[in-house]
Amino acid sequence: MNDAELAALLKERAWLEGDFVLRSGRRSSYYLDKYRFETHPALLRELGERIAAQARNGGDPPDLLAGPELGAVALAASASMASGLPFLIVRKEQKDYGTSNRIEGVFEPGQRVCLVEDVVTTGGAAVAAVEALRGAGLECRRAICVVDRDEGGADALARAAVRLYPLFRTRDLQTV
Questions:
Q1: Which of 95, 80, 79, 161 shows the shortest CA–CA distance to 123?
Q2: What does residue 150 show for φ and ψ, rounded to 5 degrees?
Q3: Which of 24, 55, 132, 143 has the fewest CB atoms within 10 Å of its CB?
Q4: Which residues contact 78 (CB under 8 A, 6 or more apart)?
Q5: Which pLDDT tens digit goes with each residue over 36-93?
Q6: What's the N-to-C CA distance of the chain in angstroms?
Q7: How far apart are CA 28 and CA 9, in angstroms?
Q8: How many helical (H) and strand (E) elements, i.e. helices and strands, does the chain have?
Q9: How far apart are CA 79 and CA 48, in angstroms?
Q10: DSSP 175
Q11: Helix, strand, coil shares, percent, the chain, to 5
Q12: Which H/E stretch holds residue 78?
């Protein structure tokens, strides 16, 4: 599947128009419903392969991938299977039972991790996940998302010393 075909399928499957309140609190006339593309096997497989390829690009490949709950876990799992890299799950909050972990999975402090995200708007959730990873002693300087809405998320991550690599931007989907 080429970029144009994938963009068209993402738009067909997940682009909703109306009046929406985003996680950031902002209002939007469109919404990208990540669950509509993350629950479609062919789309999830293709996105996982692309995320895996992007994670391998660059001079400092990661040891691990990480997906914040709940939205990016399926993407991180798919990219893990495509790349052979183990993945971690970043909880929104530390759990208060069992192992009391905020970061789920096996890792060693000092390992390099690439954050996997679905849709990035202001970057607040992604930055919080990076902080949790760093708090566990992991190094995180790269993030990959399926769609960057170009509403400040890349800048917020840059302020946290993380570079965002989007597979698509909103304008890529608007033009198909």
A1: 161
A2: 55, 45
A3: 24
A4: 44, 45, 47, 48, 49, 51
A5: 999 999 999 999 999 999 999 877 889 999 999 988 999 999 999 999 999 999 997 7
A6: 15
A7: 21
A8: 7, 8
A9: 4
A10: T
A11: 40, 30, 35
A12: helix 73-83
Cα-Cα-Cα-Cα dihedral of 162, 132, 33, 17, to 10°?
-70
Please identify which residue in the block is written with the tokens 């905020």: 102
Three-state SS sequence of the chain:
CCHHHHHHHHHHHHEEEEEEECCCCCEEEEEECHHHHHCCHHHHHHHHHHHHHHHHCCCCCCCEEEEECCCCHHHHHHHHHHHCCCEEEECCCCCCCCCCCCEECCCCCCCEEEEEEEEECCCHHHHHHHHHHHHCCCEEEEEEEEEECCCCHHHHHHHCCCEEEEEEEHHHHHCC
As given in the structure block, the two tokens for residue 55 are 């994670």
Q: Which two tokens stand for residue 110?
A: 């000092």
The pLDDT value recorded for residue 107 is 97
Q: What one-letter code names the amino acid at 7?
A: A
* Cα separation, 172 vs 96, whole angstroms: 42
Peptide bond into 70 cis (omega under 30): yes
The amino acid at residue 165 is Y
Identify the pLDDT of residue 102. Answer: 86
Locus of tokens 């954050």: 115
